[in-house]
Design brief:
heterodimer, A: alpha+beta, four-stranded antiparallel beta sheet, 54% helix, 14% strand, globular, B: alpha+beta, four-stranded mixed beta sheet, 13% strand
Chain lengths: 375, 414
Amino acid sequence: MNFDFSDDQKQLRDQARKFLAEKCPPKAVRVVLDGKAPYDKELWKGLAEMGFLGVAIPEEFGGAGAGHLELCVIAEEMGRANAPVPFSSTVYLAAEALLIAGSDAQKKKWLPAIASGEAIGTLALFEGKGNPSPRNVKLTAANGVLNGVKKPVADGAIADFAVVAARTGSSGRDNDISLFLVDLKAGGVEVKSLTNLDPTRGQAEITFRDAKAEPLGAAGEGWGILTQVLDRAAVLCAFEQVGGSDRALEMGRDYALDRIAFGRQIGSFQAVKHMLADMYVSATLARSNSYYGAWALSTNAAELPEAAAAARISATQAFQHCAKNNIQVHGGMGFTWEFDCHMYYRRANAMALGLGSLSYWEDQLIDRMRKKNAA
Amino acid sequence: MNFDDTPQEAEFRATARAWIGANAPKQYEEELRKSSLGRTVLKNANILEVAKAWQKKKADAGWACLHWPKEYGGRGSSPIERVIWSQEEGPFGQLSRMFIIGHGMCGPTMMAFAREEHKRTYLPPLASGEKVWCQLFSEPAGGSDVAGLRTRAEKDGNDWVINGQKIWTSGAHYSDYGILLTRTDPTVPKHKGLTMFFLDMKSPGVEVRPIKQASGASDFNEVYFTNVRIPDHQRLGEVGDGWNVSLTTLMNERSAIGAAVSTGFPELFEYCSSLMLDDGPAIEDRAVRSKLANWAVKASGLKYTSMRAISALSKGERPGPENSIGKLVAGSMIQDVATYALDLQGAGGVVSGEDGELAGRFQAMLLRAPGTRVEGGTDEIMRNIIAERVLGLPGDIRVDKDVPFNKIPTKGRG
């Protein structure tokens, strides 16, 4: 047993951290936050050049073929830097869906383009309020075309292609759902940007009117594939959330050491110390749950579904907790646009919803634990 | 990152499993499995005797105190082998709770500070459970403020004469030996005038009075010292260096990882899996599921935090503050879990003991839980440790830091 990243993986983390500190300082994030650009194109290009976009994509499809532990390491740094790029939608969702269910031709077409930064992908699953469920998929697929509306679609306004969940049957069961690949730059697709909690990662509404689509995976197996994609993304997002938690904690700690009030560093007041200690505790629990998720993901272990749900819940809670209390430590300054606290608060709360909300994952975790106990 | 056993680890596991299968006291397995914090009951046996017999059997076969050196009664095992052992020992491991203070704290302190002949004399019977040890630190005037203790040790020839009182001493009523922190110089600031000893608990002048706890049980004691004589060769460390010696003890407490922390979660999950509420099975109730999921990730987070610590330990890194997190999170969690289990029982939840649901399992947990949040450092002290030693925040303002001990005002119980 060895429950830690290897020295090589830690070296990769240092490399990613250094790269992002230089290329993605808060002022770069603010360009996107302030609406001056839809995402950081230069950073995206740089990430591709560093090999980070294709780190878990096999070499035969243009990636580095390193693996998912390496991707977890990068994900943590992306979260720490609050990177304003479509990393999660392209790499965790679209690329993973292709890796799980894509034909050889589909992989050859899209994966090298993802790894090189030429193609941005996303997953179009939700249709308004609600959590992942076959029942909530109303968009239909028939005769090779899609009709319906998806929203919110993460990074939908900048994506080149989407993996779309569509209804192909009316049995009322999970096998009514199939997945499709759609070129979003082709006809029959209308994209509208939506305002959202975290402008550093956009959300869109996409309307499909007889949009041409090709099946991804077998007909009727869409929900099974989606569940796997969401589980993998849950682990990868958990690492982003852990990175964000750590950064928010660090910001709070640094401010508590710097700021003097009542003649003392505010970090010398027990109320402040204990708040920061609790942030450390939740970030640590999240990190440990995420490590277990990383192990399950990288070995494709039978424990993955349960580990993914646990990592998701733990990391979501930790990031929300740390981002919220980071603002509290900063007092009034923390609530200003000028300070960076709100960027993490926005990201934490947007990420808490992106793959389905906490209550959805709580249900998943309990169902999966019951299944394991019954087995 | 790898959870699988290496070939050596797998071999160790197989050997341990086979030996436990052939030797463990299986007649108590079910009762031990159903025990929880606050409720370890063997109906037809004395648990101390059962624990001692199991420990002795382990020691004779080389399975006691796995990480201790062989010459002191251990096995010289790696931290990971210790984890594997505890996984394989399962519910029988609950029996070693009787020896946790001796094995986790007194033994390592003896190893670091006792004379070689004392180590060879005292450590093997401690490892084998034949002799039980306790730790005499806390006092009425100094609980969390350990260095505020007032028990005096005065030199008289080759002996030291001890007078004073200790409190919250776990297991003193069945202990044979103890390590004792005393004040040898009240005229210097409090941390500088302390000295550590070990002593025979049967020495004349030692009086142990069990304390009846809020739970009704008596796990702790007051211990009174009246002109108790301890020979100087039983001193641990230098005169006046007792604070540093006690820090070693407390560091060892932190590194006593590998044993599963009680959180109450497995008990609650099992309970909810079969419980019927007015509207149907508890496990299908949205509110119940949400509570369970939140506690599930705390319990798994603690488990994997401890495994990360063990991995670090096996690479030769020193144990970090992970164990402070364990007790901090588990303490209030077990209290909340017990409260919630009783809430699910409705009005009937008030009935405790053998008359209660599941023989009063959660009621016993509720009444024992407050102690977990206090013993070995309160939640507040644990948070201070994290804030100061991990996050580097300023220490609390200590008005008594440079004041001679006998000039510090004192009031209240520790």
